[in-house]
Write a structure and sequence with these properties.
Layout: H1 6-36, E1 42-48, E2 51-56, H2 62-78, E3 83-88, H3 89-98, H4 102-108, E4 115-121, E5 124-126, E6 143-147, E7 150-154, H5 171-187, H6 192-200, H7 204-228, E8 233-237, H8 244-257, E9 261-266, H9 295-306, E10 310-317, E11 322-330, E12 335-340, E13 358-364, E14 370-372, E15 375-376, H10 379-393, H11 399-416, E16 426-429, H12 435-447, H13 457-467, H14 485-488
Parallel strand pairs: 8-12, 8-13, 9-12, 13-16
Antiparallel strand pairs: 1-2, 2-7, 3-4, 4-5, 6-7, 10-11, 14-15
Length: 495
């Protein structure tokens, strides 16, 4: 599956260059804010609308956002150098105390590392997991868009840094981030430093239990809404390693509690035979595109289920590349069909099913934790870490192949999933605030096997530096029905 092709390495290099581009613009943004609003604090939050949502500690006007963008462009045009120095923790603390960076001081206080990189731009300092480019003028493509109480900094696409994508507001996605910010407040922290303090204080088991309870409460809410609105077909979509399978099984349990009888249908079992599967531009079988699914048969079977008829559910054999007959199922009057797959938000997949009886759920690991005010925990990194563990421990893949294939996975998601996010009736955040503290135990030994001469080395070092920020939590505290168990093993569900 993960052949050693140059395309995968090229995409991995593009992703890392794009991350450095984002870091550079984030640093330029910080310098511009300090010049224009020296008494205010910048917070770079979640990823939305192909950029980062940013805010200050006061509500910004449209005029403020224009001023910030113009100041950033002035800095970029002057092209100042970004200087890197290596500092001990005490030295770094002294530097950031002068700049009133209480957020980063809380992180440093929880670290055991002896030194770390500190970057300087126009007399302002910051620290980043991914290094910025050598000069501010190296990152020229961006725009700022007023959004809510702050703004979004829109970046160019990772595959072509010369092209700035069209800005499309994502109100539903932003709303779900707001919901999970409230969860962070319930847990009592919103940054890695605060999480580490809580773990060192013995709160690890409590954090796991409360995080899982918040998940269960949300799934129960979704089941209640589905029951109340009498939907017959529930469509669950999300990107790779979002936890769709476990989420769907847990939703089925909650629907049972409400007196409904769910049947789970995987759209993957409706793949075309390999002889009819489309191929991508490199001649590889393209399972990411919607044309890989036998849409007419899926719709025929769903219509039969809705009508109360018996249906022989297919099973797709990836080794032979063909479908075989599976169990015969029948949907009772109080039944609900739960359809899970990456295209489920796309109306084309279930075009024959009346929209009024469908309920669409988008699921992803939308991490609500920040490393500090200027460094996020990437949502895509959370899924990548899950995938590394699952594919290397339980599917027999090499970590180098997983990393090399990630660009292709990202491309498929951007084409087939993200354009349909706002079609969802509800969104579910599968991220668990404690999971990097669990995944660390699994990922670090694997990533350390990647040597300096390998093309995946830079990516491995980036992820290792990320895990170094987290204190560990005991795996035994993770319940057997947790979404995380889908990736680390020990789940009570059968996959």
């Amino acid at each position: 599956m993960f052949e050693k092709d140059n395309k995968g390495i090229e995409e991995l290099n593009k992703l890392n260059l794009w991350r450095r581009y984002q870091t550079t613009l984030s640093f330029v943004l910080y310098a511009a804010i300090r010049r224009l609003f020296p008494k205010n604090y910048l917070v770079i939050e979640h990823s939305v609308s192909l950029g980062f949502y940013c805010r200050l500690d006061h509500i910004l006007t449209d005029h403020d956002v224009v001023r910030i963008e113009m100041e950033m462009k002035r800095i970029i045009k002057s092209d100042p150098r970004i200087k890197k120095t290596t500092r001990t923790i005490p030295e770094a603390i002294r530097i950031f105390r002068k700049e009133r960076r209480s957020d980063i001081l809380a992180l440093f206080a929880s670290l055991r590392a002896g030194s770390l990189p500190v970057y300087e731009l126009l007399g302002f300092h910051d620290s980043f997991g991914m290094p910025p480019l050598p000069t501010a003028g190296s990152a020229t493509r961006f725009c700022l868009k007023k959004f809510s109480m702050g703004f979004i900094i829109v970046f160019p696409h990772w595959q072509d840094l010369s092209q700035l994508p069209e800005y499309v507001p994502q109100y539903r996605l932003a709303k779900i981030f707001d919901e999970y910010t409230e969860w962070s407040h319930i847990l009592g922290f919103c940054s890695v430093g605060q999480l580490n303090d809580a773990i060192r204080g013995g709160r690890g088991p409590e954090i796991v239990k409360v995080s899982e309870a918040l998940h269960e409460k949300k799934i129960g809410f979704l089941a209640d809404r589905i029951s109340r609105e009498r939907r017959k077909v529930v469509l669950v979509a999300g990107p790779s390693s979002a936890g769709k399978t476990t989420f769907t099984k847990r939703l089925a349990v909650q629907l049972l509690v409400n007196g409904l009888r769910p049947i789970i249908v995987s759209s993957d079992n409706y793949f075309m035979p390999h002889s009819r599967t489309p191929r991508d531009e490199f001649g590889r079988l393209d399972f990411e595109g919607i044309k890989a699914v036998d849409i007419p048969k899926l719709n025929r079977d769903l219509l039969k289920l809705i009508a109360g008829k018996r249906v022989v559910m297919p099973r797709f054999n990836f080794l032979t590349g063909r479908r075989v007959g599976g169990d015969t199922v029948q949907l009772p009057d109080n039944g609900v069909a739960l359809v899970e797959g990456i295209h489920c938000l796309n109306e084309e997949l279930t075009f024959r099913i009346e929209r009024a009886i469908k309920f669409k759920i988008y699921i992803s690991a939308l991490t609500q934790l920040n490393i500090d005010d200027h460094n996020r925990v990437s949502t895509t990194d959370t899924r990548l870490m899950r995938r590394i563990v699952r594919d290397t421990y339980y599917r027999g893949y090499e970590v180098t192949g997983v990393l090399r294939h990630w660009g292709s996975v990202r491309s498929g998601e951007e084409k087939n999933i993200y354009p349909y996010q706002e079609e969802a009736d509800e969104m579910f955040n599968s991220a668990l605030v404690y999971e990097p503290s669990i995944l660390k135990k699994f990922c670090v030994p694997i990533l350390k096997k990647i040597r300096r001469h390998m093309p995946e080395y830079e990516e491995a070092r980036r992820l290792l530096s990320f895990f170094a920020l987290f204190n560990s939590v005991e795996e035994r505290d993770v319940p057997s029905n947790s979404i995380l168990r889908e990736f680390i093993g020990g789940s009570s569900f059968v996959y």
